[in-house]
């Protein structure tokens, strides 16, 4: 039986352009199958794996091969530029 | 071709001896400009040639310069910035500070590319430059007035169209974390150059004029300006204030005096971001001919943090230092704290740094209510922060010690306080954590102005510049990219290019503008070589002062020597040594002293600098 997990994905700054047009706010609530990694999620939103980015999960850095867990809070940022 | 004011390929620089009350000017032709570009590149060359090593930064021999960018007043790109230069009393190194608004272009309209001050006036004065005419005027009645009052007063006398660069009471009291105000509260904040101006009894520089800025091909400049318009709706709306939450969550913004990072430490960063800040906005404004227009005036009413008058919107650095660094989530207080700094003349990055330092010292019983005049300091207590900041501005009680930055304060306070003093060579670092942006470690440690984020590197990667991207855990192989990023930034800074608009136009347009204005026909590669020369002569200034960046004091906390226990940068320690060694080798700088090799200087055509150092 496939286990499904609930995660949230929040996009920051320029990455908001990858949000679905009907999304409410900056976050998306997703249900994904077990074994899904962040690269799979990025791919679902047409975010190139080569695009420089910072990813945190539950306030810790993770790479794109991180396998998501139930209730994970995933955040995608552009690399810091200026300020 | 035309470049400066004489229409014959020369930049015109005014020299003012404040003791003798004498003024004179000199022209600097293409033989120097093609090597150092103008702006602070030219200023660095002049200071290297004329100021001997070892002078007291607050003494008469230290030169203080104000330079418009080489594209200033031309309408090219977003080149409204000007640079203040001098030996820094905060770090003892080369110092510069970058400001926007309208002063830089108007210095050119008044008739000069730059002005240098030397000597100390017997009594307070200000300098008026009007359509090429220069007058040193009495400022005794202005001494003690804040920057808003001074600006209003001088524009009242000389016309609302005049532009004022001035200091506030903090600089008069020689606070080493004070800067120079223009446009009633925009700041050339870093390096403590406000104190240099205060030490000279120079209250203000007023510029006013309608002179043309000659351009080799003005039509081409106008065509380029129409073709390449920087645009970013979100940036226009918020400016850098849009980044506080994202930078906090990504671990870019340090929290709790650099001891923590991330949303777990500061979950309410959204409260001091974007809309939460511009809710107080009363009007928008633009720097000279800027097509982005991110500036705004804010006012807070009927609040314990009510502003005294409409005041400039705090930018990310101020929100980071008075917010995330001190765990303060009150947006009204952000506007007020920013206003207090702007009126008194304090650098908000350093001021937030000393407040965070004081709180951590208080938390650890190193300072007590006896020192603070009864103030009970704690994280996130905005009301107490306002009162402490007022003490710093007035140099009263503990404020007298804190007014010279955390390094000097910790040397006086002792009792182990140095571990809470977050600085690099005496300067409080900006709100960017090299554990998240590792290339910044090189900028913080090796730029001639230690601790600065705005001097090039991966934090400032313009579109169109071909550089490698790195994971933030990869410290190896960064030197070539860093070199290119630093070089291009020095060209941009010397142009007067705004580092924020910089992100919205392909950088390869910059040489096109420069060629159209100067009449030169240089490639990007040639301009990058000019940028490296500017970088190198600033560094050579420090070498001649006996300064070795590898032996400077800095807080190991910045680089995660004791790794953080939570947050995105948990467990990370920046491999500073690898990055430094690779960059020094790439540049041909000595691995122990950082002194540029003779070969590297000669490759840049810097024979005179090589002779001065060897």
Protein model, in words:
The complex is a heterodimer of chains A (83) and B (614). With 83 residues, chain A is mainly beta. Chain A has one helix and five strands, in the order E-E-H-E-E-E. A five-stranded mixed beta sheet of chain A has the order 2-1-5-3-4, with no helix packed on it. In chain A, a hairpin with a 2-residue loop joins strand 3 and strand 4. The longest helix of chain A is centred in the middle third of the chain and has 7 residues, at 38-44. Chain A is globular and about 45 Å long. The N and C termini of chain A lie far apart (48 Å). In chain A, 25% of the residues are buried. With 614 residues, chain B is an alpha+beta fold. Chain B is built from 24 helices and 17 strands. In chain B, the strands form four sheets. Chain B has a six-stranded mixed beta sheet with strand order 2-1-6-3-4-5, with helices on both faces. In chain B, strands 8-7-12-9-10-11 form a six-stranded mixed beta sheet. In chain B, a hairpin with a 3-residue loop joins strand 10 (180-182) and strand 11 (186-188). In chain B, 62% of the residues are buried. Classes of the chains: A mainly beta (83), B alpha+beta (614). The A-B interface holds A 12-13, 52, 54, 56, 59-61, 63, 75, 77, 79-83 and B 240, 242-243, 245-247, 249-252, 262-264, 315-317, 320, 430-432, 436-437, 453, 458-461, 469, 471-472, 499-500, 502-503, 566-570.
Number of strands of chain B: 17
DSSP strand count of chain A: 5
Count of DSSP helices of chain A?
A: 1
User: Whole-Å distance between the termini of chain A?
Assistant: 48 Å
Oligomer state equals heterodimer
List SSEs of chain A in N-to-C order. Answer: EEHEEE
- Give unreliable regions of chain B as ranges: none
Which structural class do the helices and strands of chain A define? mainly beta
Largest sheet of chain A: 5 strands, mixed
- β-sheet strand percentage of chain A: 25-35%
Overall mean pLDDT of chain B stands at 96
What characterizes the major β-sheet of chain B? 6 strands, mixed
SS-derived structural category of chain B: alpha+beta
**What does the radius of gyration of chain B come to?**
22 Å
- Tell me the Rg of chain A in angstroms: 12 Å
As a percent range, the share of strand residues of chain B is 5-15%
- Estimated helix fraction of chain A: under 10%
From the N-terminal CA to the C-terminal CA of chain B, the straight-line distance is 35 Å
Shape of chain A from CA axes?
A: globular
Give the strand order of the largest sheet of chain B, numbering strands 1, 2, ... along the chain.
2-1-6-3-4-5
Mean pLDDT over the full residue set of chain A = 92
